Amino acid sequence: MTVNFNANIKLLMGGSFIGGSNWNKPANEIDKCYKIYHFKDGEAQISSNKQKYSLTSGNLYFINGYSVVSQQCPGRMAVDWVHFIPESVYFNHLLKNNCEVVLLDQNEFSSFYKLFAQFNDFFDGSLPEPIQRVLLLEIQSFLQFSIAGVFRGFDDRHFEDDSAFIRLSPALEYITTNYRENICLNEIADKCNLSPNYFHRLFSQTFEISPFNYIRQMRMEEAIRQLFYTNKTVKEISFDTGYDDEAYFSRTFSKLYHISPGKYRTINRKKLP
């Protein structure tokens, strides 16, 4: 069974940030992505369940946002930043489970440093279309090179055959592409040539979540990204994430996060980067 090595990357947001205690916060759903921080000045700390990482001036960091518990700036910081998610299910699997904060070799990235200064204009969409397209390619290349840099630091055990994941990867790829649709268990299990009951049991044991809840989680994570990064209405977001009924979407969201989508947006859009 083959694994998808799609190198495309979904860009979420980026820019330049100067701040201090306004950056301090516990992790929340918005942090469930990957981040590159280029620290130009100051310092900060990021804590995971395992340890605390110091981010210092002049360094370039890859951050697995899924592992972050809290972040704090004791004084002042200036940082260029970008949030993103690889489209490859396999790359996500490797990054999410095998790294937290990685100090990247600056010498390898010297050719990209001029790019950082253009993050604000690119993500604001204020550049002419031809320049915007070129920068998109450059940012994609930079992030792909960053991921490769993280992988170069892994030892062989990180790439050992994960038989359960490999066996279920066709289903994960299918869900990633079609989670907005009303897909049924039989349909997903068929992608792995497994019976529905056995597929459900194997999936739940491997990922500690049922296929149905996994799909709902993907929908909610995308809803949160759109609430945070876009100006779409709650109704538009509900349709974009596979819910035909805005009221049902809002009830589902509120049940999971104990806050309405609208209030979630109001509170969390103040928290950058």
Describe what this molecule looks like in 3D:
By secondary structure, the chain is an alpha+beta fold. It has helices spanning 89-98, 113-116, 119-124, 129-152, 163-178, 185-190, 196-207, 211-229, 234-240, 246-257, 261-268, and strands spanning 9-19, 25-26, 34-48, 52-56, 60-64, 68-72, 77-86, 101-104. Strands 1, 2, 3, 4, 5, 6, 7 and 8 form an eight-stranded antiparallel sheet that branches. 26% of the residues are buried.
Number of helices: 11
Architecture of the largest domain, according to CATH? Sandwich
CATH topology of the largest domain: Jelly Rolls
Label the structural class. alpha+beta
Helix content: 40-55%
Radius of gyration (CA) equals: 19 Å
Output the CATH class name of the largest domain.
Mainly Beta
Quaternary organization: single chain
Strand percentage: 15-25%
The ordered string of helix (H) and strand (E) elements is: EEEEEEEHEHHHHHHHHHH
What is the mean pLDDT? 92
Specify the overall morphology.
Answer: globular
